[in-house]
Amino acid sequence: MLSVPVGSGIMQEDSRRQPHCRTMNPTIADAGWRFDNSYLRLPEPLFAPAPPVPVPAPRLVLFNEPLAIELGLDPGILRDAAAVFTGNELPPGAEPIAQAYAGHQFGHFTNLGDGRAILLGEQLTPAGRRFDVQLKGAGRARYSRGGDGRAALGPMLREHIMGEAMHALGIPSTRSLAVALTGDVVMRSTALPGAVLTRVATSHIRVGTFQYARAVGDEALLAPLLATAIARHDPEVAAADDPALAFFEGVVSRQAALVARWMLVGFVHGVMNTDNMAVSGETIDYGPCAFLDTYDPATVFSSIDHQGRYAYANQSGIAHWNLARLAESLLPLVKGEGDAPLDAVREVLATFPERFERALLAGGRAKLGLVTAEAEDAQLFATLLERMRAVEADFTTMFASLAGLAAEPTVGSAGGSGPAAGGSGSTGGGASLPPRDAAISDRSATGENAGEGFSHGQLADWLAAWRSRLAREPGTIAEAITRLRRTNPVVIPRNHQVEAALAAAEGGDFEPLTLLLAVLREPFTETAANEPFRHGPPAGCGPYQTFCGT
């Protein structure tokens, strides 16, 4: 058993931590499972029974203890439950199914469904929330389409890393409860160790689920599916004059906010097919995803995205396109005669760009330390991005550097003209910086470390404009610096570091993964431990590519 810090998410052994009372001989039935499987009350064309296929040698290698507790589950019992997390043993109340859905994959429509994912059921938490618990890589189902239904260790660990990192960054996401080895070998381009990931989501209902219902059964499937989705995600709209239209507006709003949040941390989803857009507004499917190092809006990571359809800068446009497909699917349920339903969904759909831009600007203001709104803010944010692109600056490092650059440099500093005037907006100079751990060096206030590829001279005029804008904010510069540190992460899942951790784990060494996960749990705090994780790839790494995993 691996020995790692409590709460790291890696398989743990800690006799001191027993958050739940246990019997002398606890079983899986005592672990706190409370399944209520509402999806099974839908018509069967929307799903198919899918018993997991047993594996020869289950072994748990990752376990998310905090998430287990949130779900109302006993970590002490589940630490030894590798058989449950591979599908060899079903928890009480589980009714395993594969969900049917369709999707536009790179713009081409096809019927799909869970080919290697099996929904065990819906766990009711002590707080009264409902979460899907799904096994990914648990064997073939009706919708496998010739696939083996299995998953390799590397992609499952990647999904765990990304989901937990997004959660720590405050971005809605599916999460991982566990990753278990199967003892099988999975053949992809080479032989790989097999694994199963236990994925947790507020639901797995997708845009593609509605597309499937429209294509297969129209209103006979659409109406109960909509009722289930509303109950799961928008119960307040059930009594609306037009529930379908109100639900659609909720999905539009959630997706606008979600994609804006992706953009603000440099996240590239990589495969924004309609089957990978959840109506919950959670990020789902971490296949060919990655985070920007160098800022370039045209960045594409996926090895199969040859046309750049899912490039970083295209994500809002693709989300808008996907939502149009949802509008088409919901149209039979929207009230009105003649063209009225079509006009109504078009009107709601047309609000997406403005909703996205509003969310992006609000997030951009926060990344600049601003709490009030001025007309110039959009241009201030856009200009910084333009400079970053021109000099190939590191996205995360640049924004993380702003806390150290917020205080006006003293006379004689490079590019500076003296401390900011006092008053409501500033206390002037670096003396106002909040105290930090003496062992941790602060981000440079000279601009020399203002993002890889940047020098202070290249930023001088922008910095002057930004500091002037900060000076008009209520409170002190010290308060602005605190906001900057709370908003701009210092660590993200750096692509080269993720790959190194995955390679080590595939070779049996989980220590690099343990350390990486520990660092990613506190993305906004500079520490001695995370200093090596705050930098982009070393020179000579070359372009980074990701792969789907199937």
Walk me through this protein's architecture.
This protein is α+β, with helices and mostly antiparallel strands. The chain folds into three domains: 177 residues, no CATH class; 155 residues; 162 residues, no CATH class. Helix content is 35%, strand content 12%. It has 15 helices and twelve strands. Strands 2, 6, 7, 8, 9 and 10 form a six-stranded antiparallel beta sheet that branches. α4 runs parallel beside α7. The N terminus is likely disordered.
Question: What attributes does this structure have?
Answer:
single chain, 550 residues, alpha+beta, 3 domains, six-stranded antiparallel β-sheet, two-stranded antiparallel sheet, 15 helices, 12 strands, 12% strand, globular, disordered N terminus
Task: Reconstruct the topology from this structure.
Elements: E1 47-49, E2 59-63, H1 65-70, H2 75-78, E3 97-99, E4 102-105, E5 108-111, E6 117-124, E7 130-136, E8 151-152, H3 153-168, E9 175-187, E10 191-201, H4 207-216, H5 219-233, H6 243-265, E11 267-268, E12 290-291, H7 315-330, H8 340-349, H9 352-367, H10 377-391, H11 395-405, H12 456-471, H13 477-487, H14 495-506, H15 511-520
Antiparallel strand pairs: 1-3, 2-9, 4-5, 6-7, 7-10, 8-10, 9-10, 11-12
